[in-house]
Amino acid sequence: MKKDFGDSVSNNVYEHRVLAKMSQMELAKKVGVSKQTIFVMEKGNYVPSLLLALRIANFFEVEVTEIFTYSKGSDPSES
């Protein structure tokens, strides 16, 4: 059975996209995914693969940690 550590990843893809004056569709085409993928990512309902996160960061010419933030949960076995 898979443990749920409660880890999460937040992002500011929306902010970067708006500053670049791009639509969700334009960004999606640039990084090779669907508009729906960008939409759910911006809403916080989808954690991208490492490859996609790197593509997005590379597109905006920033470090991946400038767009994606990892928050560590806790190990349930330590409770």
From TrEMBL:
Superkingdom in the source lineage: Bacteria
UniProt domain HTH cro/C1-type: residue ranges: 13-67
GO terms of molecular function: DNA binding
Matching SMART domains: HTH_XRE (SM00530)
One Pfam match: HTH_3
Coiled-coil segments on the chain, per record: none
Gene3D superfamilies: lambda repressor-like DNA-binding domains
Keywords: DNA-binding
InterPro entries in UniProt: Cro/C1-type_HTH, Lambda_DNA-bd_dom_sf
The protein's name: Cro/Cl family transcriptional regulator
Natural source organism: Pontibacillus litoralis JSM 072002
